[in-house]
């Protein structure tokens, strides 16, 4: 976090990220609400079919496996190779693969690289007439092709770069970000997604935080439940889970 080039990293990020964000907005998913709005438009336009598969995948260890030379050639290679220098047991080390976790510019570089990689993947998707979107290293796409064809396409995508390996989920229902997306015989439904490993913890009410912290925690949870739940039963189930979490945390 306090390397000799942290300042220039933040400076370059400030310069380059707005340009990237502008050009990549059409395929960048901002959050769960943005995802649902895009899916609603996708459904309204008649693209969702009963046979449509939903697929998500993320890239394994993207930041630390980020290809340096491909990212932004000489300038970025210099930045990355000289940025993450550290000492351990009286020896100096320099990271030669990937970027520094926590660096402002590593996120922008990862976005740029993934945007390029996704465009390569999109060429394969064009023949299938799909939709896709990305949130950093997480990608969502739909396909009306067979499971075998989707698996084969993603197997080939795994070969696009030696550093990039993806983990996939395909089915009529998949989680993406904090949303569960389901294709119920051609009808789109969404609800709040909770990771299986997630514990029911929030900010303990007995902690020393100011009152607005607790209010914001409740407001955010309720807003997400309202925004993500397609049916009343899904909303009621999410409210039940919220009550249990808040009771658990005092």
Ends apart, CA distance between termini: 35 Å
Number of DSSP helical runs: 8
User: Low-confidence parts lasting 5 or more residues at pLDDT below 50?
Assistant: none
SSE string:
HHEHHEEHEEHEEEEHH
| Average pLDDT score | 80
What does this protein structure show overall?
The mean pLDDT is 80. This protein is globular. A hairpin with a 2-residue loop joins β2 and β3. The longest helix has 23 residues, at 104-126. The chain contains eight helices and nine strands. It has helices at residues 6-24, 32-44, 62-65, 68-83, 104-126, 147-157, 211-228, 232-248, and strands at residues 53-59, 85-88, 91-94, 132-135, 138-143, 166-171, 173-176, 179-184, 187-192. It is of the alpha+beta class. Helix content is 48%, strand content 19%. Among the domains are: 100-170; 172-249.
Describe the protein's topology.
Elements: H1 6-24, H2 32-44, E1 53-59, H3 62-65, H4 68-83, E2 85-88, E3 91-94, H5 104-126, E4 132-135, E5 138-143, H6 147-157, E6 166-171, E7 173-176, E8 179-184, E9 187-192, H7 211-228, H8 232-248
Antiparallel strand pairs: 1-5, 1-6, 2-3, 4-5, 7-8, 8-9
Structure summary:
This protein is α+β, with helices and mostly antiparallel strands and 250 residues long.
Offer a few descriptive terms:
single chain; about 250 residues; alpha+beta; 4-stranded antiparallel sheet; 3-stranded antiparallel sheet; 9 strands; about 20% strand; globular
